Automatic annotation (TrEMBL), chain A:
Keywords: Lyase, Pyridoxal phosphate
CDD domains listed in its UniProt record: Thr-synth_1
Lineage: Bacteria, Pseudomonadati, Verrucomicrobiota, Spartobacteria, Chthoniobacterales
Gene Ontology terms: biological process: isoleucine biosynthetic process; L-serine catabolic process; L-threonine catabolic process; threonine biosynthetic process
Statement: the UniProt record of this protein carries the keyword Lyase: yes
Name of this chain's protein: Threonine synthase
NCBIfam families for the chain: thrC
Superkingdom of source: Bacteria
Pfam families the UniProt entry points to: PALP (PF00291)
MF (Gene Ontology): L-serine ammonia-lyase activity; threonine deaminase activity; threonine synthase activity
Organism expressing this protein natively: Chthoniobacter flavus Ellin428
Automatic annotation (TrEMBL), chain B:
Protein name: Iron-sulfur cluster-binding protein
Lineage: Bacteria, Pseudomonadati, Verrucomicrobiota, Spartobacteria, Chthoniobacterales
Pfam families registered for this protein in UniProt: NIL
Superkingdom as given in the UniProt entry: Bacteria
Domain NIL, chain residue ranges per copy: 3-74
Native source species: Chthoniobacter flavus Ellin428
Record-linked InterPro entries: ACT-like_dom_sf, NIL_domain
Amino acid sequence: MCDFDFGPLEAAYDYDAIKAAISRDILRSRKRRMWRYRELLPIDGEPTIGTQVGFTPLVRADRLAKKLGVRTLWIKNDTVNYPTLSFKDRVVSVALNRAKELGFTTVACASTGNLANSVAANAASAGLKSYVLIPADLEQGKVLGSLVYGTNVIGIHGAYDQVNRLCSEIAGKYGWGFVNVNLRPYYAEGSKTMGFEICDQLDWRIPRHTVVPMASGSLLTKIHKSYNELIKVGIVDSTPFSVHGAQATGCAPISHAMKRGTDIVKPVPKPETIVKSLAIGTPADGYYAIHAMRDTGGSCEDASDAEVVEGIQWLAEYAGIFAETAGGVTVASAKKLIESGKIPHDEEVVLCITGHGLKTQEAVVGKCGEPRLIKPSLREFEEQIYAKDTAAA
Amino acid sequence: MKETQRLWLMFPTKLVTRPIIWELGKDFNVVTNIRQASVTEEIGIVSLSLDGEREDIKKAIAWLEKEGVKVEPVEINTIEG
């Protein structure tokens, strides 16, 4: 946190030195992991935690492209990120490597889901003591994904802002490394690797359009930063690109500010959406996300709960990828951006899909149909299934 | 015990023109120090440090919240998904 204006700190790099030290060939000679771009990440030495994270598939999704009405569509598929099936493994592994370099022996976070799972898993593999703070009323199913790693899970009674304040006080008093409090400048930089990989997988070019889900807005600002950094260090050519944001309508402070034409982000006191992983009412990087979108000619959309479910189903049925609710937000918002012409039909778009659908199964339970039940008889199969399906076709 | 707390204050429309920070410094035993501010007709957002005894700071924050100001530590979004 900046001591002058209390704004977020930003990692700074010597881009001239990095430009002299790396090339496409050098990067390509390294393992296909997020650490391939380590000169552009804020750690001093070689990474020792999360060494297998990243380099998730960039999937060309032609059937979904046709459904959405756009020429070329790519899915950056972080539903299969290692080890906890979300993009949070990128940010957490940078934060924990830096925590180790800075001498922290206890790491922590406050989270309702993906972040907690990732801190617990990566700390366990590194042998770091970890604490995960959660609101006391969080469903037990969500807590299990952290408890299994042997982390210390602490439930806190009280409103979210009171939990926020407690975490800041603990970080200050006990010297714990809270990944998204006192380690936040390092943590946030891990998101850039998603953008680096997208360009790498497109054979070193920046996609014309990228759609990014937004909670705090940090991922969008870092993907914007990653594209600009690759230009600065001479790895990609400077070509026009737009970054677009996606939020859930029940918690869309950044989207609403964009649509009002302002950069003042009005907090949402009580988020009401099934998209819990994006339900941040006071987004710390909202201002910066708005400027990143505006500066690149990008736009922003938001999706209702019903549209989110449809987005999840389309991604599964037309691209074979089962995403959590944030993925549904991204697909549904992309659909609106394409329909409105903000992403032209004859251009290329990358959708950033950030977490696996098994984490939020309740969002689609009862909405994907039911199995058809028959007796173990060929006659029944032919009458009940085959004949009906053939007639329907 | 003396301490400093760094906070983001968010003023809803109905409080935007009220001199709340002046009232805070006058009625509570805390030193207020504005570090950044953005005020429109619709909303006011201020980053503020409060110096004082821990108990006085607690009372000051409780009063702000009672008046309708949203108060967060500067490290907002501590809870993530």
